[in-house]
């Protein structure tokens, strides 16, 4: 019997028209995101801007945390404008003053990070300089020392000093690159942006940063002690300065190559994810892109303990001015909650305390959208008119009456 049943199902499926691949992909995306918190879901984008500010800020934080190449605020989509913002947000020194305020790697953390890298570079410069049997000072004072150096030893000191001016800083700069990458990765925690473990990982990163600061102070002290004992403090300082300059030159070379290598891919991915946008803008979003009305939606907590507060901003119709949610005549789209049936009423409460009612119309199944005309004392469902635009309210967790 199972064989005949499966055969019949296969024949029926062959007769059904194939779905559009884009529709299938969209449905799979919704299924993946339905159990995630709203701040982790794909932000809703209108024709030329994000629907609500939290979604835009989350998208911006993710882009900055991953050293994004396209979509920086204030850019026009050009390669030069995005590269300028990329450098301002990633350079170890410049980013302390010019990085975006929404970057997960804030200005104070960048200052600590720079101090750590300078301390490590100074200690490595001291170790490499003291490893030389003859210092660069012997080139100038070799014959005046007590006991004096032989002419061959003085010549060797001069040759070593000239070579070390080039080789030493390069070695010091190259040694610090892996440390630089690992330290920054743990401080930014870019891979957890928008997830429930974000705060935990950032707290762990904060404690690791405090430990690293202690190590940095220790490295700095060791570097000064080794430079003083080696008798070539000037040579250590010269190696350190050259190493730091060379590391920043290498940064520009590395960032320029990687930026141009991945720019087109980042641009294509950004425009596919956010059609119609060339940048992620957050300034003044509530004034120009939404009503500014936050709906507090009661829903079960993550562990079933208490209410979980979810904020959502409703997008007004493009052809009208900003409207209040309680003014009659505004249409919004709602999603039928799980377990609800046609004719059933659902209610929710606005931050001002007003209760709004919605009646599920006939033919609407759980998870489907339907338009609601809001207005006191209770919302009514229009029968024929299509939705006039507006944000999507996920009412799957609303209180059912």
Automatic annotation (TrEMBL):
Biased segments, Basic and acidic residues type? 1-16, 23-37
| Regions crossing the membrane | 217-242, 248-266
* Keywords attached to this entry: Membrane, Transmembrane, Transmembrane helix
Q: Where is this region: Disordered?
A: 1-46, 368-401
Domain of life (superkingdom): Eukaryota
> What is this protein called in UniProt?
Uncharacterized protein
């Amino acid at each position: 019997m199972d064989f005949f049943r499966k055969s019949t199902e296969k024949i029926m499926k062959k007769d059904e028209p194939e779905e559009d691949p884009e529709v299938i992909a969209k449905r799979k995306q919704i299924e993946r995101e339905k159990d995630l918190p709203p701040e982790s879901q794909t932000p809703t984008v209108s024709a030329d801007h994000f629907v609500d500010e939290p979604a835009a800020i989350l998208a911006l934080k993710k882009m900055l945390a991953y050293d994004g190449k396209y979509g920086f605020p204030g850019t026009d989509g050009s390669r030069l404008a995005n590269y300028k913002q990329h450098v301002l947000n990633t350079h170890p020194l410049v980013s302390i003053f010019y990085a975006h305020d929404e970057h997960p790697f804030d200005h104070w953390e960048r200052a600590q990070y720079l101090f750590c890298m300078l301390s490590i570079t100074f200690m490595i410069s001291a170790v490499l300089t003291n490893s030389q049997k003859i210092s660069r000072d012997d080139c100038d004072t070799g014959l005046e020392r007590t006991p004096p150096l032989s002419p061959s030893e003085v010549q060797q000191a001069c040759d070593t000093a000239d070579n070390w001016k080039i080789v030493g800083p390069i070695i010091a700069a190259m040694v610090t690159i892996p440390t630089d990458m690992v330290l920054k990765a743990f401080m930014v925690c870019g891979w957890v942006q928008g997830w429930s473990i974000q705060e935990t990982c950032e707290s762990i990163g904060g404690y690791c940063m405090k430990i690293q600061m202690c190590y940095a102070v220790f490295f700095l002290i060791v570097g000064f002690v080794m430079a003083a004992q080696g008798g070539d403090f000037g040579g250590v300082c010269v190696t350190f300065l050259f190493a730091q300059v060379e590391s920043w030159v290498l940064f520009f070379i590395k960032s320029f190559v990687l930026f141009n290598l991945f720019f087109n891919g980042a641009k294509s991915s950004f425009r596919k994810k956010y059609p119609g946008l060339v940048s992620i803008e957050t300034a003044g979003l509530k004034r120009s892109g939404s009503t500014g009305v936050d709906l507090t939606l009661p829903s079960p907590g993550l562990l079933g303990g208490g209410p979980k507060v979810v904020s959502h901003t409703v997008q007004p119709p493009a052809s009208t001015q900003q409207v209040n949610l309680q003014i009659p005549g505004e249409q919004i789209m709602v999603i039928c909650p799980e377990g609800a049936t046609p004719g059933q009423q659902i209610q929710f409460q606005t931050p001002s305390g007003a209760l709004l009612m919605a009646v599920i119309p006939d033919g609407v199944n759980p998870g489907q959208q339907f338009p609601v005309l809001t207005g006191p004392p209770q919302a009514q469902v229009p029968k024929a008119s299509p939705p006039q635009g507006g944000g999507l309210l996920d009412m799957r967790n609303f209180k059912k009456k």
